[in-house]
Design brief:
By secondary structure, the chain is of the alpha/beta class. It contains 13 helices and 14 strands. α8 links the parallel β6 and β7.
């Protein structure tokens, strides 16, 4: 099916996808564990705790302990998912993940809800705008954000299958369902959503549906768009980025600081290849505030209108 014809009216949170998938995985493999930091209700691991109590540990509000416990569990052959908010999972326990998980390359998955601006009214203190960048800079870490319910389930499943540290980022709020349950995904390989010859748009997470809507508008204007869902920003799909560079112009769209996130990862490939222009749309190196989610996106230019205008500026088409 042409992604531009897909009805995007159905919405679900990706934290629900994690909660549903980890229960399925835990029943299939008794080595799957969830280590909670006392927010199972918000992170959607309550069902896991009830149905698989012997595979669930709640350490209380002690994220550093959760990381250390998970590291220990992994040395006994368990596959622990540490579950908390993204702002705590990336900042409060970053030292423990670096020293006790990434350095020895242990099989721990850091599964974090409330990524980016999706906490909205919770304010800047709970909006993780730098989390993927923090973990992208750690050796041995894989960094992933699914763009909808079904892609997130598939990526969580794959994260459990590969060996090594993985950071998985989920949304608090509901976002459009883009894929169906039979769609296939591969960690480290971009999902090609639309082919085009004038410009490339590379998006991830909750920004993908905005990129789809912008692509619809640009196609109406006669601008042919190559559109990618770059769900894995580390390792970045270098081959897919190089293909986009052949078009000469790329726009990246993300609900993350434009520093050290998707835009930076793509720009690094462009710099090393020595060609192409990259325009980054994302959080403008500033903290969030308490406001509706859509307003926060608007304040940072993460909108359909800005994607369309930026593409127009790059290809020289004026409307």
């Amino acid at each position: 099916m042409n992604i531009l014809e897909k009805d995007l009216s159905t919405k679900k949170t990706t934290r629900e996808a994690f909660g549903d998938e980890v229960v399925k995985l835990g029943k299939e493999d008794r080595n799957i564990y969830v280590v909670d930091a006392d927010i199972a209700k918000s992170c959607k691991t309550m069902k896991f705790a009830k149905e698989l109590p012997e595979q669930h540990v709640n350490v209380g509000i002690a994220e550093q302990n959760a990381a250390g416990l998970a590291a220990g569990l992994s040395t006994t052959g368990k596959v622990p998912f540490v579950s908390t908010y993204a702002v705590f999972g990336s900042l409060r326990m970053s030292e423990q993940i670096r020293q006790e998980v990434c350095y020895p390359k242990l099989n721990v998955k850091v599964a974090c809800s409330h990524g980016g601006l999706t906490p909205a009214s919770d304010g800047g203190s709970h909006q993780a705008v730098e989390d993927m960048g923090i973990y992208r800079s750690m050796p041995n870490m894989t960094v992933i954000m699914g763009s909808d319910y079904y892609s997130t389930r598939k990526l969580v499943e794959q994260a459990a299958e590969i060996y090594g540290p993985v950071y998985l980022r989920f949304t608090r709020g509901a976002i459009p369902v883009i894929y169906d349950e039979n769609e296939e995904f591969e960690i480290g390989k971009a999902k090609k959503l639309h082919e085009g010859k004038d410009i490339a748009i590379i998006a991830n997470g909750d920004a993908v549906h905005l990129a789809i809507e912008a692509t619809k508008e640009l196609e109406k204007l006669g601008i042919s768009v190559k559109l990618l869902d770059m769900h894995t920003i580390k390792p970045i799909d270098r081959e897919a980025v190089v293909e986009c560079l052949e078009l000469g112009q790329i726009i990246t769209v993300e609900d993350h600081n434009i520093l050290n996130g998707l835009g930076s990862a793509v720009s690094e490939v462009a710099a090393e290849e020595g060609k192409g222009k990259v325009k980054r749309i994302g959080i403008q190196d500033q903290f969030g505030e308490s406001a509706p989610y859509e307003k926060l996106l608007e304040l940072n230019g993460i909108t359909i209108e800005n994607i369309v205008n930026t593409a127009n500026d790059l290809v020289g088409v004026k409307v």
